[in-house]
Amino acid sequence: RRIVVLISGSGSNLQALIDALNTPALPQTRIVLVLSNRKAAYGLTRAQQANPSIPTAYLGLQPYLKANPDRTRYDYDVEVAKIVVKEKPDLIVLAGWMHIMSEGFLDVVCGEKPFDGEEKVQKSIPVINLHPALPGAFDGAHAIERAYEAFQKGEIAHTGAMVHRVVKEVDRGEPVVVQQVEIKEGEPIEAFEERLHKTEWEIIVKGAAKVLDEVAPIQ
Ligand code: GRF
Known about the structure:
binds 5-O-phosphono-beta-D-ribofuranosylamine; phosphoribosylglycinamide formyltransferase activity; 37% helix; Formyl_transf_N_sf; transferase; alpha/beta; purine biosynthesis; Formyl_transf_N
């Protein structure tokens, strides 16, 4: 089965996927492309250093808009989708992808817009996103810090992380895997964050495996 992974940063979740390839957790699966919207994303290095190495691509929003002044963010997202869809993935994983997708991305990935000439995606490709919070809790950026603050104020008893389907409303897709994460009284945010990231590394693999088994089960 073929996965494309989109990243923006360190790629520790990408690394979790790489380490799980062709183990019982993710059998008969390849990552066929890692695309980043940040040139300096260490995740690109992780892909290049994987064995076998994984093809990488970079496309930054600002450079794209500068090079194409008449184009919009929608066009950028279409461009990202075209690069991704050309690899014929069974699953697209947003792992630490720090860019809110406009409809341009899903329009191509769901087959509503052509990606090559008139060629459209025949069957909608599932997209999952990792988000370090529980469904509907802390949508958007800095979810980890916001959960930690809320805990300090006694507003929440715990938090969590989830892998969810990507739909047109941000961080609102149907959850695929949800895992609660405790916050311990008085623990520094670094310790909490480390535990939360470890949870993300587990659920990103579980989430990918679950969706792949739905769309491309191993016979
Ligand atoms: C993770 O907490 C992810 O949920 C968030 O970015 C953090 C770093 O991810 N979006 P990675 O190390 O780049 O995979």
